[in-house]
Amino acid sequence: MQWRDAPKEYGPQKTFYNHWKRWSDKGILSQMMVGLAADHGETKTVMNDATYLKAHRTATSMAVKKGGVAA
What we know:
By secondary structure, this protein is an all-alpha fold. The chain has helices at residues 13-26, 28-39, 62-65. It has three helices and no strands. The radius of gyration is 19 Å and the shape is flat.
């Protein structure tokens, strides 16, 4: 999610980011993930992907326009 999409209860975007940054720098977020994984018996690396991708509105119809087969 983008910072502006966070629930209003989390406070202003900048404050929310500052908390996240401070927790990340202190390793608190990593400890939380380790704790969550331990509760479920996970022995491999657990990751949280924060990738944000934006597709063009015509991305799903490109194959049809170029003579390809639509999935």
